[in-house]
Amino acid sequence: MSDTITAEAIESPGARPDGEAAQGEVAREASAIELQGLHKRFGRDTVALDGVDLTIEAGEFFTLLGPSGCGKTTLLRILAGLEEADAGRLAIGGKDITEVPPHKRSVNTVFQSYALFPHLSVRENLAFGLKMRGLPPEEREARVAKIAEFIKLGDLVDRRVDQLSGGQRQRIALARALVNEPDVLLLDEPLSALDAGLRSQLQVELLRVQKRLGMTFVFVTHDQQEAMVMSDRIAVLNGGVIQQVGPPREVYEHPVNAFVARFMGHDNLYPVTVRDGDRLTTPLGELTAEGAGEGELLLIRPETLDLLPGEVAGDNHLPAVVSERLYRGSHAEYRLEVGSSTLQATLNNRGRRLPEVGDRVTVTVAPEDLVTLSE
Amino acid sequence: MAYTGVTPSARSRGMVREARHLLATVAPGATWIVIFLVLPSAYLMGVAFMTNGPYGLPEMPLSLESFRRLAGFGFLGWSPGNLYTLLRSLWQTLVSTGLVVIVAYPIAYYISTCRARWRPIMLLLVVVPSWTNQVIRTFGWMNLLAPGTPLSELAEALGLISANMGLYPSNFAVTLGLVYNFLPFMVLPLYAAFEKLDTAQVEAAQDLFASPVRAFWHAVFPQTLPGLLAGIVLVAIPAFGMYVIPELLGGGKGMMLGNLVANQFAGGSNWPLGAAGAILMLIATFIGLFAMRRIGKRLGGGEEVVI
């Protein structure tokens, strides 16, 4: 499979539901998504979405990230049309589709359980959407063959669904959605049922497919690592409200509030008790920050810390005792006692001596690595 | 058997053990079946080809007289009474099975969508009536459908039946009785099929451009097919041979094959004819099962879905 295959390669003119033909060599336009004031509640008390405004750019790999019950899956289902919003508007490619039923939307979904049809062969599963749209059998076959080559399904198309492994099912589910060349592909935790090795392999595969097709992908996950690996941009949701939207680095390094920081895996959060310009007083001691923002909570990322042996005086130098060390080969994770507070630090294993439990050390951090945020 | 040889090898010892195991587990059941099913059936088969004697008992010589009479040839030329009974049985089976499917399908679907803790209760409600004796339940219908009852008077007022006829006895009453009686046998296997169904598949079908109707037809219905075919087998075969319901609700013109057979033996009127009717019932059942198997195989994508 060469990398020259573009969206054009699996596009057949006139095959889209609106009969719009692809023009010449130009790859199809990816579609942007606009959400305005989406509200959704289940029953009386369960608020799934509480006013979501969001713009997803055309061709973007966009991830909805949050804990279970944060509304991310509801949002995805509203995009698919499987759930109706109580209020708000939804447009894809500039067209308002708030009222359009799911089978009339040019949007396809890869379901968490894959939802392959057990009574149909893999080939029939792949052709299902094309058949429902009334494409003639020859064209269905041609497009199924193309997608099978594109996703490298090999001889899987001739198997029965119950003969497939988890990873194979996942790829069939992806192919079954992609073969329809939707404006937007929705993925509902598609990798959550797979073991770790297969999972990271399929993450890379999925990312390549998206880059090659240039299609808009909306991906739902509760795994912040996965979100950071895959996404162009991430929206972190909690309680039906978007907390922060931005590229992975921004969300990880500059979370806007404590929830986002904790969800992205940060534990080193300390209240700023006194603030005098760039001088911050915290339970750890006095620290100098640079461009740290205006919040009342200090975030120190473990990987920005360095440990010096013994006691070394200086600015942003904190005396500490090692209380725990987790050796992970490429790096080591430390738990340090600074006064009455604890601090997590990650040290790359670059062959130097790694401090032992009980060692007295000095923790140093660069002023520009300190970030403050609001609760 | 393997002990006749010289030193038996480990392999043949294993085979002996296997044979013993087979004998010990299967023999009781097999003996039972041979004594109480195979031998009587063979006897019945023989009787069907014998001549009717003076007291309704079978006599030699062998003849096809009973089968001729079932096909409508009487002593005095064409007398299709038996043939009508046979056709009525087929018709009642088809109509009542069809109606049972129509009634049971939505019920089974509905129960499968209820909250998990309600489902056993709903299923119980479907099954509970069949805990009462069939004869008593059928008497209940007699009381509901007799002339002068509210239901009969309603039917009369609507012009469905003529004055003072009542809804019972009639072929309609037999159909009603059959549908009522066999409903649980269809609801249960259909419910099992619906319960296994992953609702995400229905959503996947809709997501893949299937309208609600087509999503049902292409994603839901094929998956309930094993349950449906199992239900049809469970309903149609006993319905075809039903005795009690046509006997009580049908009257003279509602007779089915089961009544014909019973009358030939019980009244002592004609054993060979009764035996021929029973044989015919058996053959029809086998043909029905074979047809269901074929249909199931075709609709189920080459998979065995029936028996």
TrEMBL record, chain A:
InterPro entries associated with the record: AAA+_ATPase (IPR003593), ABC_SmlMolc_Importer (IPR050093), ABC_transporter-like_ATP-bd (IPR003439), ABC_transporter-like_CS (IPR017871), Mo/tungstate-bd_C_term_dom (IPR008995), P-loop_NTPase (IPR027417), PotA-like (IPR005893), Transp-assoc_OB_typ2 (IPR013611)
GO molecular function terms attached to this record: ATP binding
Assigned EC number: 7.6.2.11
Domain ABC transporter intervals: 33-264
Region called Disordered, residue ranges: 1-21
Pfam families: ABC_tran, TOBE_2
Keywords (A to Z) from UniProt: ATP-binding, Cell membrane, Membrane, Nucleotide-binding, Translocase, Transport
Chemical reaction(s) catalysed: ATP + H2O + polyamine-[polyamine-binding protein]Side 1 = ADP + phosphate + polyamineSide 2 + [polyamine-binding protein]Side 1
Keyword Transmembrane tagged: no
Taxonomy, superkingdom: Bacteria
Keyword Cell membrane among UniProt keywords: yes
Family: Belongs to the ABC transporter superfamily. Spermidine/putrescine importer (TC 3.A.1.11.1) family.
Described purpose of this protein according to its UniProt entry: Part of the ABC transporter complex PotABCD involved in spermidine/putrescine import. Responsible for energy coupling to the transport system.
Subunit structure: The complex is composed of two ATP-binding proteins (PotA), two transmembrane proteins (PotB and PotC) and a solute-binding protein (PotD).
Record-given protein name: Spermidine/putrescine import ATP-binding protein PotA
Originating species: Halomonas gemina
From TrEMBL, chain B:
Membrane topology category: Multi-pass membrane protein
Membrane-spanning segments: 21-50, 90-111, 123-142, 172-194, 215-245, 271-291
ABC transmembrane type-1 domain: residues covered: 86-292
Subcellular location: Cell membrane
Domain of life from the UniProt record: Bacteria
UniProt cross-references to PROSITE patterns, sorted A to Z: ABC_TM1
Database matches in SUPFAM superfamilies: MetI-like
Record has Metal-binding as a keyword: no
This protein's record includes keyword Disulfide bond: no
Keywords, sorted A to Z: Cell membrane, Membrane, Transmembrane, Transmembrane helix, Transport
Stated family: Belongs to the binding-protein-dependent transport system permease family. CysTW subfamily.
Name of the protein in question: ABC transporter permease
Organism expressing this protein natively: Halomonas gemina
